[in-house]
Amino acid sequence: MVEDEPLLRDLLAKSVEASGFIVSTAANAADAKRAIRVSDPDALVLDIELGPGGTGLDLSEVIARQFPDIGIVFLTNLPDPRFASENGAQLSKSHAYLRKSALQSGTELVDAIEAVLRDKVTREYRHDLASNRPLAALSQRQIATLKLVADGKTNSQIANLRGTSVRAVESMLSRVFEALDIDPASSNPRVEAVTKYHQLRSAGQHAS
Amino acid sequence: MQARLSSNPFLVLGKRQSLGWRNHVGFIFPAFISAALFDSQRNSGEILAWLGVAAVGVLVTIVSIETLSVILRKSRWQTPHPFLATIILLGSGFLRGLSIFLLAGNLGLIDDSELLFRLVGGPIFVFTSYFIFNWVVDEYLEYVKQLAALRAERESLENGSLEFEAQIVSLQEMQKANIREMLTPAIWELQKQLSGAKSKRDISDAIFELRSINERIVRPLSLELSTASTDDQVSASAPGELARQSYRWPKQVMFSKAIESQFFVFASIAISFSAIVSTFGPLRGFFALAIASVVSYLVVALSARFGRRLVSPGLGLVFSALLGAANGAIVAVVIASFQLTPLSPFLSQAAVFYSITLALTFFLGVLRLQRELSLQESEQMVEQRKLLNSRLRQRVWLGRKALAMELHGSIQGALQSVAMRLSRLDSPSAADLNLAVDEVNRAMENLEREDHLAGKQLETLLQELKLLWDGALEIELDLDRSALEKLDKDSSVSRCVLEAAREAITNSAKHGEAQNAKISLRTVDQLALLTVENDGTMPTGSKAGKGFELYETISYRHHFEKNGNKVRLVLEIPLSPSGEALPLV
Prior knowledge:
heterodimer; A: mainly alpha; three-stranded parallel β-sheet; 47% helix; B: alpha+beta; two-stranded antiparallel ribbon
């Protein structure tokens, strides 16, 4: 159980222990790494923002390389991991992703852990794929294009960077505007799209 | 931007203004002075007649330059090649000499023996005059251009600075107040509900209130906080003393730097040409000029080698006048030794002439040095502003991150855990309820926390980063002890260093496919120098932007470089001026 907030960590650990699991806790990524070596866990419950130092996403990256058999349940306030870092993190299909605010009791967490252990993660345990999440309609490629727009790049610069044509970029942006419910005929759809992008991305960078 | 005034006088003939109106205006002065002082005295005729001839000569020169430029396809070149400009000037001088010869001849001011002098002297006179004026004008224009660019840059930084400071004030004052204003009543209400809870229904209402505070207040607040300012708008610095914009007479100058021997020689030729040639005759005159030029160049170049001491401009002016007089005396003696002229009257004339010319050269040199100094000062000022700018960017970034994290982490975590715990209790005791209230209050107090490293030291956190990646990416730490000591006093910069190192390491492993990495940390002056080297691939294309935004926000400068088969990211992160942590906003 990797969570930097002590109250929540203890509470969650007790909930999971009550279901018969043996739980070790860690407050940050480095402590978690130490604990993994000692306790050889089957699954990790990971918050994304873990205070100064490595994030939950960094830890999951290390786990994927060194301990690929460990199941991971992300438990976070962040609605969409694609905005958690500059890298636009993408999660493995075998990981569960739960939003803290959507958790009513410890039972849901236990169910998610069991789903991960059985390698049967359904959409029920992937809150990041919920249809009502912000920018749900955008693909990773569309988000990457939107990010370049937010960086102030012109369509031709984006086309150069992404190795595609200006026409393809224009078409991609039309779909982005549509997905964001922005009228392409409005005074400045680009600015509106960038504003929406910044809102979610900034929230992502600061949320956990 | 590198402030530097042009130093090659021949190459600047290739600039737009070399055949332009400023040089035409400048040319009028030597043309009329030469006519009034030399031609009228050496030849017959009234001074007014010679001034009229000079006016025609000036007109012919300017018209010739413009006409030759058009003939040589001025419309096709943006700026003339230096050789082309030389040809145009020599050609115009030839036409000028011919015109003056014909006009003055018809007016009976000169005879046919003047033809060679006018045809050869005209081109030399025009070329040297334009050459010198162009040199001076170019330096001035270059100075004006560079100063304007620096001013524009500074103004842009200052404009951004106002927005930036407004953002900081907004973060410091409004946001904190906003958070308290919105959260406190809700928390009071919650405390009241918890304290007065008698029944299970009351408890369940309180739990509902707990969750509701999270959804209604904390999350929207943290979202608003996160988006209160965008880094794109942040590009400025704090106010400070403005860059100096005008001349300021220097207290001290280095004599050797103020004297341009080339300028001195050309100025001497241009000014004395008519007098020398008219005194000695064309051939002997050119020979005398050649001797004078070589001697003058050697004397001034030699004196410059020994003139490396800093002197006041006044003393330098006196010294240059004395040196000029000595130079004139030497020139006179050498020329007399070739029996071109008797020493007696020439010695004093040459001494006075070179004394004035060298003093003038020194004066112009001091002005030039001062212009360069002004530009350097402006540049330094702009650099200082950029440094301050990056410090402020750091401050906004840290403030936003810290506050949003406390809202998301501490307060949301406390509200969630309290709600979850209470919901598990069938009948919470008064102690349980008090504990819940204490936990929420403690989380609220965290908003005031001013430690960006959660009580840890930077070295410990970097060691933890190394431990985290151990087995997946081998990280070597090369941390300068004195740098760590400085950064331990400054948790804000330490946090920036840590975040940059973390981002760089993640990208090395994830996108660069690196197996080994090295984090080095030093401090140089006002900067922490963080270097992250890895044996992976250089970020290119869409990967080049990974971490870029973060590096851009928290560093003064950053760049990637190739070091053999390794990729190196170098970040210069500004330290807080006092060496102490910036306050949290």
